[in-house]
Amino acid sequence: MSNKTEEARTKPAAKPALVPKLRFPEFRDAGEWAERQLNQILVKISSGLNIGQTNESTGYKVTRIETISNNVIDMSKIGYVRTEQDISCYRLEIGDILFSNINSLDHIGKNVIVDRDYDLYHGMNLLRLIVEPSVGDSKFIFYLLNTGQIRRSVRSRANKAVNQASINQSELGRTPVVVPNRNEQQKIADCLSSIDEIITLEARKIDTLKAHKKGLMQQLFPAEGETLPKLRFPEFQDAGEWNWKKLGELCVMRAGKFVPPAEISEMNRDGLYPCYGGNGLRGYVKTYTHSGNYPLIGRQGALCGNVILGEGKFHATEHAVVAAPFFGINTDWLFHVLLKLDLNRFATGQAQPGLSVDVLEKVACFAPRLENEQQKIADCLSSMDELIALETQKLDALKAHKKGLMQQLFPASGEVRK
Hints:
Blueprint: H1 3-10, E1 34-37, E2 42-46, E3 60-62, E4 79-81, E5 97-99, E6 102-103, E7 111-113, E8 127-131, H2 138-145, H3 148-157, E9 159-161, E10 164-166, H4 169-173, E11 176-179, H5 182-220, E12 243-246, E13 251-255, E14 273-277, E15 280-285, E16 290-291, E17 294-298, E18 307-310, E19 313-316, E20 320-325, H6 331-341, H7 357-361, E21 364-367, H8 371-409
Parallel strand pairs: 14-19
Antiparallel strand pairs: 1-11, 2-8, 3-4, 5-7, 5-8, 6-10, 9-10, 12-21, 13-20, 14-15, 16-19, 17-18, 17-20
Helix pairs in contact: 2-5, 5-8, 6-8
């Protein structure tokens, strides 16, 4: 064996370059990203205001864990404190990052950036991260903290307990990160922020469509105590009042069939059928109980009364009630009737709310005399559903595009040296 061969065997493998796969042209010759610890690019990491909170809308507005549970600052999920103390140092500023350091393991590490002045104060059970402006760009650090490698790093070093995990300030500060120079940080942050703006606009568009559909339903069906809808298609203006009916007169309702949890697959493979429970899709199984289109009603748990439309061949479990419309009752119209009725309000039981078939059959509603009018209403609302589904697909595609872009704009986990 030659000396060169032996040298090649014993020589340590070269460390991969600390550069992302995708780089803006002006930074391609800027060299590797720098290895740092998170605390080296922060002014401080601090805990929140340790004062008891209330739900009464008086005093100072303060954050809670749930304030950032959906990766945005949700002002409907804040608390309030009343105090004579000077708490001005806890007031959140634009660019601050709120970090969930005490949560279930799946949710630990969730974070948001303060993007505007909310007149909001830093409350308990969240950490506040303030970026050193001479070293880092706040939005870039926010995106960096949301990369898969950082989230995995935080979870792996968290202290685990039953149903909860936590990471303290010192350990979080030691999180290894790699960062480019500040100009490149700004460029990456601007790119991802522009995509976020498009995602936000698309989400608002979907919310607007859903609100429009809800308003349509309120007008296309008679209000409580009335026998005629406020909005009626021209050809049915003289068709007379709607008929008072019980749901049991519109459809046959039966609970589905039990399937052992071990037989439910999370992945959709050839030969498997969708399996629906009380809260929607549970997975995929080898058997099916129904073939066709049927409204399904959740009958147990917090979401009992939830209504979805099962289509094609599917398996309904015992936690779902299948509504099979009688002859002359349009399936899509019945589906929207069930949505409009808000069936959850008929649930009984406190700890485990439930809906029995007997209760559901007695729920009252009104139905138009003509099947053609049912069809017209169903077509109108179904077209709205199709539009909402199309826009939802666009939103999902935008989110997937952003995720793929982040994987290329930041060095992959295997390229980050520890």
